[in-house]
Amino acid sequence: MSTAYKFRNPEGLYFISFATVHWIDVFTRPVYKDIFVENLRYCQTNKGLEIFSWCLMSNHAHLVARRAKDTPQLWETIRDLKGFTSKKIHETLHNCNTESRKKWMLRAFRYAGKKNSNNKHFQLWRQDNHPIELFTPKVVRQKIKYIHENPVKAGIVSSPEHYLYSSAIDYYTEQRGMLDVIVI
User: Fold this and answer.
1) Residue 178 DSSP class
2) How confident is the prediction along the chain (184 residues), in pLDDT tens digits per residue?
3) Which of 36, 43, 44 is nearest to 60 (CA)?
4) Which among 29, 65, 111, 120 would be 20 to 30 A from 142, CA to CA?
C-alpha cells in the first residue's frame, strides 16, 4: 500500500483533495452541491472539523482543515463526509425524475462500486484523499490561494469571491460564506 498520502499527524493542518470516480461532473446542480455543504457543516458541528479553506468544484473538492482536540481523527471525518455524501447523492439521484443524467450516472457509480472491494453497489468518490500536511504559514497561504483560484482557472467566475461554493468570500470580502471558516 502506498504511503505517499496519509494523515500522519493527528494534530496537523492538511490540504486535502478528493474527486469523484471517473471525474464525473456530479456537482453541477445546486441540489448535489448543497448536500456536500450540508454534510461539511454537520462535520464541523458534530465531528470537530475545523475548516480554514474549501472549494467544491464539479467533480472534486479541496479543503484546508484539521480536527479539533478530542474529536475523531481527521481521516475518519473525511471518510464519514464522503460516505454520507455518497449515500445522500445516491438516494437523491435514485428518487429524482428530472435529472437528465440519472441513468448514466447511476450506471457509472454502480460500475465503480462493483470494481471496488470496499463498496458493493455504488461508489461516488475515489478512494484516495491526497492529504498533504502543511507546516509553514507560507505553504498554508499558497494552498488557500490555490483552492480559491480553482473556479477562476476553470472559467466559472472572474474573481474568487464570486464563487458561492468556496470560502473565498470569507477571505476577500467582509461577508460570510456558507460555512464557518477560520480565516488566517
Assistant:
1) S
2) 444 568 889 899 999 999 999 999 999 999 999 999 999 999 999 999 999 999 999 999 999 999 999 999 999 999 999 999 999 999 999 999 999 999 999 999 999 988 877 777 889 999 888 899 999 999 999 999 999 999 999 999 999 999 999 999 999 999 999 999 999 9
3) 36
4) 29
- What pairs with residue 133 in β-bridges? 14
Dist CA 25 CA 31 (whole Å): 13
Q: For the chain, where are the alpha helices, taking DSSP H only?
A: 30-47, 74-95, 102-114, 137-153, 168-172
CA distances from 105 to 112, 116, 152, 183 (A): 11, 17, 26, 36
Instruction: Please name every residue paired with 54 in a beta bridge, in sequence order, or none if there are none.
Output: 63
Answer for the pair 54, 63: CB distance below 8 angstroms, yes or no.
yes
CA dihedral 70, 2, 130, 9 (to 10 degrees): 30
Asked: is 14-89+125-172 a CATH 3.30.70.1290 domain? The reply is: yes
